[in-house]
Specification:
Low-confidence stretches of chain A: 1-36
Strand order of the largest sheet of chain A: 14-11-13-12-16-17-15-18
Mean pLDDT of chain B: 78
Strand content of chain A: 15-25%
Number of helices of chain B: 5
Helix content of chain A: 25-40%
Radius of gyration of chain B: 14 Å
Order of helices and strands of chain B: HHHHH
Helix content of chain B: 40-55%
Oligomer: heterodimer
Largest interface: A-B, 58 and 47 residues
Number of helices of chain A: 15
Structural class of chain A: alpha+beta
Largest sheet of chain A: 8 strands, antiparallel
Largest sheet of chain B: none
Shape of chain B: globular
Number of strands of chain A: 18
C-alpha cells in the first residue's frame, strides 16, 4: 500500500475513532476502576513509573471525581512523548484518551472546541472534514492536544506562534475538582497560565482553538552546504511561510525544508523515515572520518541542490514518521541569535571530535504572551539536539547545553534539560504571576511530581 | 481471507461507534472493549501500513514476524518495541485489555491463542 492510500486510510480510521467518542464522552459515569501495577514509560523509554492507578475517565465528571475524591499526587498523561520527566508519578495517572473529538465548530470565526485529549493526528483529520486546519502543528503528530499545549509545542514559521498561542478559551478541572472555564476576558490569569502549564494546574478537558482554512501544502527539502544555509537562514526564514533546517553534524551538509500552499491536488507523502539510521551507518562505515563522511552523505543525498517534494493536505504534509527511538533536548534562543548559536554548537562538536551525527533541527516561532511559553515576549529560534536512544546522549548534551544557556535559551518543557526552578525563574518575566495562580489552584501541590518540584517549586520560595 | 478479516475488523470498529453513542447512566464506566482500545491506541500505526508494522487483520503480516508466541507480543507491547511506545501507547490499559487488542489484530494468524486471565 503506498503512502497516499495509507494516509487516506489513516484519516478514515481517525475519523471513525473520533466518531465513536463524543457519544462515549457524553455519558455520565464515574472514573474507571484502577488498572495498576504495570510500569508506565514515556515513548523514549527513559522515565518509568509504577502508578497506584492509571485511569481513563470518559467524561468531565469522571475527571472531577478523580481529583475531588482521590488522594495523593496526580499527573495527567497524553502520548508520553515528552523527553523530560514531566509525567512520572507513583500516585494516579489520568489519561484523556477516552475523551477525544471535536465538540463544535464555528464556521464564521473558524474556531473549534475540542476535547483536550484528542490526539493531534486525529484532530488534523477531524478538522479537515470540518473545513478547518490547525494554524501550526509539530512534525510528530502522536501527541494529545493537552500535552502539546502543556509544553507550548510548536511548528515553525516566523509569523506563527506555538500551539498554545492559538487557544482562545479552555476548560480546566482543578485539583479540588472544580471546573474553570476561562479566556482572555474570564479568569484571565488562569487563562494566561493554563495555556502552557506543564500539567501543574489541573487537567485540561476542553479547548477552543483558532484555526485556519484547510490548505494543501508543498514541502520542499533541498540539500545545501551548512555554511551557506546558516548564512542564508534569516532570508529563507522571512521568505517562506514555514521553514526549518536540519543540520547534519560532522558532514558540512544541511537539509533546508520550506513549506508553502500549493494549488496542486496531487498527494505525494513518501519519505524515507530510516534516513537518520543511514547517517550513523555511514559514520560507522567510514570509521568516523569526518571528511569522508561529508562526501558520503552528500553523495547519498544526491549532491548540493538536490531536492525532494512532498505535497497534500496540510495536516498530512506537516507530519513525519519516526521509526527509531531518540532522546531530545531543545532550547529556544532569541530569534536573531539563532544562526550564531548553531555555528557555535557545530564548532564545539567538531572541536571535541564527537561522534555525533543526529540532525540538529532549527526552527522559528513567533513571540506570544503565554506566561510560561518559551516564546513569551520574544521571537524564538528553537534548536533541537537529538541522540539515538541506544546511544549515550551525555557527551553531546552536556557539551551543547551550556552554549544554549549562554544565548539566554529557554528549555522546552517536554524535553531534556538540567535547569532548576531558580534558573528558570530568571528566564520568565511572568514566573511569579504563574506561581500565584498555581498556589491558588493547587495549594497542596497534588499536581507535582519530583521533576516539577525541582523545576517549578523551588523558585517560589527563592 | 485477508479482505474478510479486515472487513470484520472495520465492522467491529463501527460497532464501537454505535455502542458508544448510547447514553449509559451507569455509576461505573464500562472498561474499554478491545475494539475501543484498538481504535484509540493501535489503529494509527497498525491499520495504516506504516513500513515494518504488521497490519491488523492481515494474518500474513503477523505470520512473517520473528515470533508466533502471543506472550512475546504481549511482553513487547508492555515494554515497547521498535517505534511502538510502552503499553502500546495505551497508558491506561490493563494487561487484559492489551491482550484483547492484540488478539483482535492477530486474528486468523498462526499466533498462539491468548491465554486466559493475566494480571493487571
Amino acid at each position: 500500500m503506498d503512502r497516499t492510500r495509507r494516509a487516506l486510510l489513516r484519516d478514515g480510521l481517525a475519523a471513525m475513532a473520533l466518531a465513536a467518542l463524543p457519544g462515549c464522552a457524553s455519558s455520565r459515569r464515574a472514573p474507571a476502576a484502577p488498572a495498576a501495577r504495570l510500569t508506565w514509560r514515556n515513548w523514549a523509554g527513559d522515565y518509568p513509573c509504577r502508578p497506584v492507578a492509571r485511569l481513563a475517565p470518559v467524561d468531565e465528571d469522571g475527571v472531577r471525581a478523580i481529583l475531588r475524591d482521590g488522594r495523593g499526587p496526580v499527573r495527567p498523561v497524553g502520548a508520553g512523548h515528552s523527553f523530560s520527566a514531566i509525567v512520572p508519578t507513583e500516585g494516579t495517572l489520568i489519561s484523556l484518551d477516552r475523551m477525544q473529538g471535536v465538540l463544535s465548530v464555528d464556521a464564521a470565526t473558524r474556531t473549534a472546541e475540542v476535547h483536550a485529549g484528542t490526539r493531534l493526528h486525529a484532530l488534523g483529520a477531524a478538522l479537515f472534514e470540518r473545513d478547518q486546519m490547525l494554524q501550526v502543528q509539530p512534525d510528530i503528530d502522536d501527541q494529545a492536544l493537552a500535552g502539546a499545549l502543556a509544553t507550548s509545542t510548536h511548528g515553525t514559521g516566523p509569523r506563527f506562534g506555538s500551539m498554545s498561542s492559538y487557544v482562545e478559551g479552555l476548560t480546566l478541572v482543578t485539583p479540588s475538582g472544580d471546573v474553570v472555564s476561562c479566556d482572555a476576558e474570564r479568569d484571565r490569569d488562569v487563562f494566561q497560565s493554563a495555556r502552557c502549564a506543564v500539567g501543574a494546574l489541573g487537567v485540561l478537558t476542553r479547548v477552543r482553538l483558532a484555526n485556519t482554512r484547510p490548505e494543501r501544502l508543498e514541502e520542499r527539502t533541498t540539500v545545501t552546504a551548512t555554511d551557506v544555509a546558516l548564512g542564508d537562514l534569516e532570508r529563507l526564514r522571512d521568505a517562506h511561510q514555514h521553514m526549518e533546517i536540519r543540520v547534519l553534524p560532522r558532514s558540512g551538509v544541511t537539509r533546508g525544508v520550506t513549506t508553502a500552499p500549493t494549488p496542486s491536488d496531487a498527494i505525494a507523502l513518501e519519505e524515507d523515515p530510516t534516513s537518520v539510521e543511514q547517517l550513523r551507518a555511514a559514520w560507522a562505515a567510514v570509521g568516523g572520518r569526518a571528511d569522508v563522511y561529508g562526501q558520503v552523505v552528500l553523495e547519498a543525498l544526491g549532491g548540493l541542490g538536490a531536492s525532494a517534494v512532498r505535497r497534500g493536505p496540510g495536516h498530512l504534509v506537516r507530519a513525519h514518521a519516526r521509526l527509531s527511538r531518540f532522546r531530545e533536548m531543545e532550547y529556544t534562543v532569541p530569534a536573531e541569535r539563532g544562526p550564531e548559536c548553531v555555528r557555535e554548537i557545530l564548532d564545539a562538536i567538531e572541536a571535541a571530535d564527537l561522534p555525533f551525527v543526529y540532525p540538529i533541527e532549527v526552527r522559528y516561532v513567533k513571540a506570544d504572551d503565554v506566561w510560561l511559553s518559551m516564546f513569551e515576549g520574544r521571537d524564538g529560534c528553537t534548536i533541537s539536539i537529538h541522540q539515538y536512544a541506544d546511544e549515550d546522549e551525555g557527551p553531546p548534551f552536556e557539551r551543547i547545553e551550556p552554549i544554549l544557556r549562554r544565548y539566554e535559551g529557554r528549555p522546552h518543557w517536554g524535553k531534556r534539560h538540567t535547569l532548576t526552578a531558580p534558573e528558570l525563574r530568571a528566564l520568565y518575566p511572568r514566573w511569579d504571576d504563574f506561581q500565584a495562580v498555581r498556589a491558588r489552584l493547587d495549594p497542596e501541590g497534588r499536581m507535582l511530581n519530583p521533576w516539577l518540584r525541582r523545576t517549578l517549586v523551588d523558585a517560589a520560595d527563592a | 481471507m485477508v479482505g474478510v478479516t479486515r472487513t470484520l475488523l472495520l465492522a467491529s470498529l463501527l460497532a464501537v461507534a454505535t455502542a458508544c453513542a448510547v447514553w449509559r447512566p451507569s455509576s461505573a464506566p464500562a472498561p474499554a472493549a478491545p475494539e475501543e482500545v484498538f481504535a484509540l491506541a493501535c489503529a494509527h500505526c497498525h491499520a495504516t501500513g506504516v513500513p515494518g508494522v504488521p497490519r491488523a487483520g492481515v494474518p500474513q503480516d503477523w505470520n512473517a514476524r520473528d515470533t508466533r508466541d502471543f506472550e512475546v507480543l504481549l511482553a513487547r507491547t508492555i515494554s515497547g518495541y521498535g517505534n511502538m511506545p510502552p503499553l502500546g501507547s495505551c497508558s491506561w490499559c490493563s494487561e487484559s485489555q492489551l491482550r484483547g487488542a492484540i488478539a483482535l489484530m492477530v486474528a486468523g494468524s498462526e499466533i498462539d491463542a491468548p491465554r486466559r486471565g493475566g494480571g493487571r
